[in-house]
Amino acid sequence: MIVVMSPTASREQIDNVEKKLSELGFKTHPIFGEVKTVIGAIGDKRQFNPQVITSMPGVENLVPIMKPYKLAGRELKQVPTIIQVGEARIGSDEITVMAGPCAIENEQSFIDTAIKVKEAGAKILRGGAFKPRTSPYAFQGLEEDGLKIMAAAREATGLKLVTEVVDTRDVELVASYTDILQIGARNMQNFRLLQEVGMYNKPVLLKRGLSATIEEWLMAAEYIIAGGNPNVILCERGIRTFETATRNTVDMSAIPVVKEQSHLPIIVDPSHATGTWKYVSALAKGAVATGADGLIIEVHPDPAAALCDGPQSLKPLKFSQLMKELDTIAKAVGRILL
């Protein structure tokens, strides 16, 4: 439920309501607006008497939250969440592009790629240190050595870092190196992992599961926010359908639906969505036109020699050309890219 405080409510009255809700077993999430303060109260309402709260000084009204995702939805927070990561303001009028290779292979190649994606306009550097693969015999990533290479690239370029964490045992390690923790599609409903990253003060990039509904996706975000971390970035990366022409089917409709249902920012991953580099540019442009807050794109200097997902990676020159084209589209829809 939402406790709506009066515009004239004092900070002491707000604190008293929070204290009473806590005593009644609710977890509170205050949002301080310019005119009013509202307090999200999450908990068991079966034995709750609303008059206990409505009779308190400063309380204007109680409003039930109808959606199952209480904290990720717009019922509690109508103003879009903006997540600051270095110079990037994800969820604002800016389009944030994250770019880099699927997997970190060696330091020189990774830093060279980092320099080129920064020159093209990317704000965040992506790269995989831990690579969960379908086959146990495929390249699994350089792990902590890969994280050290990422840190060296950040030092060389100033770009912030995003990389995937795949196990609860690795969250502390990955968080010590990276700026954004990524939860991959296969782990979207790994609830122990979601709870773990919810305890860290790091933005979380949450990819949509292979066959997840939008509600299930937002409920996964709810786990992270309920754990105390409100900085969740949703990532549409294609869902599994009957179509085999591409690796996955990009659900562009998810962008406006999420914008309506949630205050969280949403980006699109056209690389994993298609599995083929020649479709990446078209879908990236479509995502910006449809209202996405950003993109995460795979870039590799020699895709044919890549240890992971080479066929879907853009070469640096192609990525640079795409960024210029995206800038034109961003301006046409009232957004900022370069």
Rounded mean pLDDT score: 94
User: CATH topology of the largest domain, which one?
Assistant: TIM Barrel
State the major sheet: 8 strands, parallel, barrel
C-alpha geometry: elongated
Q: N-to-C SSE series?
A: EHEEHEEEEHEHEHEHEHEHEHHEH
Give the CATH level 1 class of the largest domain: Alpha Beta
Helix amount: 25-40%
Number of strands: 14
**How many domains in all?**
2
Q: Report the C-alpha radius of gyration, rounded.
A: 21 Å
Strand content: 15-25%
Q: What structural class do you assign from the helix and strand content?
A: alpha/beta
Please give the order of strands in the largest beta sheet: 7-8-9-10-11-12-13-14
Number of helices: 11
CATH architecture of the largest domain: Alpha-Beta Barrel
Distance between the termini: 41 Å
CATH superfamily of the largest domain: Aldolase class I
* Residue windows where pLDDT falls under 50 for at least 5 positions: none
Describe what this molecule looks like in 3D.
The chain has helices at 11-23, 51-54, 107-120, 144-157, 171-177, 191-197, 214-226, 254-261, 270-274, 277-290, 316-332; strands at residues 2-5, 27-32, 37-42, 59-63, 83-85, 88-90, 96-100, 124-126, 160-164, 180-183, 204-207, 232-236, 266-268, 294-298. With 338 residues, the chain is α/β, with parallel strands linked by helices. The strands form three sheets. It has an eight-stranded parallel β-barrel, surrounded by seven helices. Helix 3 crosses helix 4.
